Amino acid sequence: MSTRRATPADRPPSVDALARSLASSGLPHAVLVDVAREAIAAGDPASAPQRAEGFRRTLLMPVVNATGVLLHTNLGRAPFEFHQAARPQTVELDLVTGERGSRQRAVGQLAARACGAEAAIVVNNNAAAVLLVLAALAAGRDVPVSRGESVEIGGAFRVPEVMEQSGARLVDVGTTNRTRVDDYRRAIERPGADVALVLKVHPSNFRVEGFVEDTPVDELATLGVPVVADIGSGLLDANVPWLPGAPPAWLAGEPAARQSLEVGAALVTFSGDKLLGGPQCGIVAGRADLVERCGRHPLMRALRPGGLVLGALQELLLAYLRRDVVDHVPFWRMVATPVDELARRAGAVVAAAGTGAAVPMDALPGAGSAPGVTMPSFGVELEGDHLAALRAHSTPVIARVREGRTSLDLRTVDPADDPVLVDAIRAAGGA
Ligand SMILES: *Cc1c(COP(=O)(O)O)cnc(C)c1O
Q1: Which CATH number fits domain 64-79+332-427: 2.40.50.140, 3.30.420.40, 3.90.1150.180, 2.60.40.420?
Q2: pTM across the whole model
Q3: Is the confidence at residue 113, as pLDDT, over 50?
Q4: For residues 274 and 78, what is the distance between their CA atoms, to the nearest angstrom?
């Protein structure tokens, strides 16, 4: 029997010892045990620190968005800052009566006021808003939808599938490129029809050009059934009164909540984290009786957001009502930044980094809003592809590559993060 002692080289370290050696990563011991076990199982204990770092980088973390896509789906759409004390909140307490209250009341009123609706309620996202409206108002009944609007939008929101889940019956009307008010009328007047409402869906993420025609809300509103407009983007008012000057050109064609209601939509549904610029949520706004039926539906219990989201949305809506959106809503601050300001910053970043070129760029609204349109921007261009090195920076920088050059668009970068860009560019050696 051999009595030779195992040396460190031929005996793997214990999982526990290896996990402890990774403590400086700051990850919990239980996670490090998994990492250590994987490294040992792979026969490569020395890879444990990289594996721990690899895990750490899968956690949600803040990054600098230099893509020029303002609402970047992979980066959580609209950036929004919100602080809440670790204190109990009056989520469902009415301070006046001391009785149980509605978590929706105040924020619903603010949302309604912000878009000129009688009432509004808030759910977890716009997909939930559409599902709830259909389930509450149209289960077991017919809902005509234009064939041109039976669309799929981002993360697998597909109109026919949402319709099916809600229990409402989709009635296809018109054609993929042209649908007129008479197409809807025929669906409503068809023998045996039981139309609960007409759904108009904004095809947010693509544009059909040429021989196309859709039926505007004001014409649909003459049909005698409630019109629900899924406007998607959450633009509250087409006149963007919170921006200095005229509405930006790229917003033309985006349906807005206030104007859709004004011309006769009974309800509008939209996302909180697209052009509204706030936390992920969905809003149903419009006629009080219909909003109330949505609020009473049993699905509401499953779709309602928590206090953190309601608190963030409340802060956002107060900023809209105060009209100090540009100061408080990062999305609209990015939109409002003059291009010469971006050019000046790009020049300063290039000078500080000692490399790259300041060049004009085109930024995009993103999140499927306003497809095919851009807004003038400015940024820094580096020769070669430096995406991986920029992502590896301590505060990761997300950029884009075009024609063999890395471009960092400053419209989507908070000016306070310009020094991060400088460091990341230098570390990436982007010469
Ligand atoms: C984005 C969008 C949705 C889905 O909204 P989520 O908030 O992502 O659930 C639905 N309908 C339209 C028209 C949209 O633009």
Answers
A1: 3.90.1150.180
A2: 0.93
A3: yes
A4: 6
Question: Domain locations in the chain?
Answer: 15-56, 64-79+332-427, 105-328
Q: What is the C-alpha to C-alpha distance for residues 57 and 427, in angstroms, rounded to an integer?
A: 18
Which region among 39-43, 245-249, 279-283 has the lowest average model confidence (pLDDT)?
Answer: 245-249
The pLDDT, as a whole number, for residue 58 is 93
Q: What digits encode the pLDDT tens for the residues 138-179? A: 999 999 999 999 888 876 789 999 999 999 999 999 998 899
Distance 1 CA to ligand 1 centre (A): 71
The phi, psi pair for 123, rounded to 5°, reads: -125, -170
| DSSP secondary structure string for all residues of 18-41 | HHHHTGGG---HHHHHHHHHHHHH
Q: Nearest Cα to 282, choosing from 262, 310, 254, 246?
A: 310
C-alpha of residue 201 to centroid of ligand 1, in Å: 9
Ligand 1 centroid, distance to 293 Cα (angstroms)? 21
Pocket test for ligand 1, best of 153, 267, 273, 309 (most atoms within 8 A of CB): 153
Is residue 1 over pLDDT 60?
A: no
Give CA separation, 146 vs 26, 143, 222, 271, 296, in Å: 54, 10, 16, 21, 29
Length of the chain: 431
Cβ atoms within 10 Å, residue 394? 8
133 has pLDDT over 90: yes
- C-alpha 280 – ligand 1 centre gap (Å): 11
Q: According to CATH, what is the number of the domain 105-328? A: 3.40.640.10
Q: Is the CB of 282 under 6 A from ligand 1?
A: yes
DSSP structure string for 388-422: HHHHTSSS-EE-EEETTEEEEEGGGS-GGGHHHHH
Amino acid at 63: V
Q: Which of 412, 333, 328 is nearest to 81 (CA)?
A: 328
Which of 126, 200, 269, 274 is the pocket-test mutation for ligand 1 (most atoms within 8 Å of CB)? 126
At residue 431, the pLDDT reads 46
